[in-house]
Amino acid sequence: MAPSATLTLRPDAKGIAHAARLLRDGETVALPTETVYGLAADARNGAAVARVYAAKGRPSFNPLIVHLPDAEGAARVGVIAGEAERLAAAFWPGALTLVVPLRPEAGIAGIVTAGLPTVGLRVPAHPVAQAVLRQSGLALAMPSANASGRVSPTTAGHVLDAGGGLDGRIAAVLDGGACPVGVESTIVGWRDGRATLLRPGGIPAEAIEAALGAPLDHAGATASPDSPGQLASHYAPAARLRLDATHAAADETLIGFGPGPAALNLSPAGDLTEAAARLFDLLRAADRLGRPIAVAPIPRHGLGLAINDRLARAAAPREG
Ligand code: TXA
Ligand code: MG
Fold first, then answer.
1. Which residues of this UniProt protein bind L-threonine (predicted)?
2. Which residue of 81, 122, 212, 274 is most buried, as measured by CB atoms within 10 A?
3. Rounded Cα–Cα distance for residues 291 and 154 (Å)
């Protein structure tokens, strides 16, 4: 794909309307939040979210945070109750992400949650992020707007950053100046019913503990913003999974890629962006049939690397 120029938009009414239109059309747009710049896509459009992964060059799918303009909107995407409701009331809008049970009826694409039954939700305070959320009417999936392996950007210049930045890889960047917090949001989830710090960030753990009136559990030593994939457990189908299968055995469900007779096909046209967008939904659909699953070979380049990474994890023998 020939790179096309990335637009730089001003954070005025015209720029925000333009960004909202691009997002509704399934494009990716980088925009400022109070923590860091995020790379936004419509969270209900799996192909748009796949383009976020393609632009970042992420070698693996990690669940993404879904951003809403207010707590009421967030409560329509995830179940916000009990301690989560107290934290939402205390810190939203702001630099806090809550990992809560997903409402399947919200229509969030499977690639956003990487197939998990939970969803990370945040209501950002930044006026530009707020304006785009309200103008577009979309729930926006937004990882930090850096290429994979690079630090999170806190200016529009960092996002584009010649050599390793996203210039030419995304439709537009909304230039809203420097991010005031400058580090990612604090992430809190619940493990065995106990509030757990999954990632330290812009809101100090002590402030969260004060709001809860109780100490937070801490995620394992592997949790850090630099190893985000370690924060979440991975979706794995109950069924046995066989990879690089050119044919399915009689008792297997075949997930195909490219032209062929498979009942379930990641992309009959052999398009990796389409395949990424459908991966988790098709794995779940195949799993529901209750038979072993055979998956056709997926090319090992571009988004195919992330697809193969996730398939390999899903096929690996279960740990404990
Ligand atoms: O400040 C921020 O949080 C920025 C701005 C743009 O909002 N976003 C950000 O996204 O840092 P990202 O993708 O770079 O990091 C998101 C983190 C990942 O480490 C991911 O594992 C975790 O959130 N996460 C998201 N959903 C999760 C879930 N359902 N369970 C566990 N962890 C989850
Ligand atoms: Mg990041």
1. 35, 67, 122, 185
2. 122
3. 47
pTM (2 d.p.): 0.91
* Separation CA 5–CA 105 (nearest Å): 37
Nearest ligand atom owner, CA of 224: 1
How many angstroms is it from 167 CA to the middle of ligand 1?
23
65-110 tens-digit pLDDT:
999 999 999 999 999 999 999 999 999 999 999 999 999 999 999 9
Q: Are 155 and 177 in contact (CB under 8 A)?
A: yes
156-187 pLDDT, tens digit each: 999 998 677 899 999 999 999 999 999 999 99
Q: Report d(CA 31, CA 47) in Å as an integer.
A: 19
Q: How far is the CA of 288 from the centre of ligand 2 (A)?
A: 32
**Structure tokens given for 236:** 């794995």
Domain regions of the chain by residue span: 7-77+99-182, 241-315
Give the CATH superfamily of 7-77+99-182: DHBP synthase (3.90.870.10)
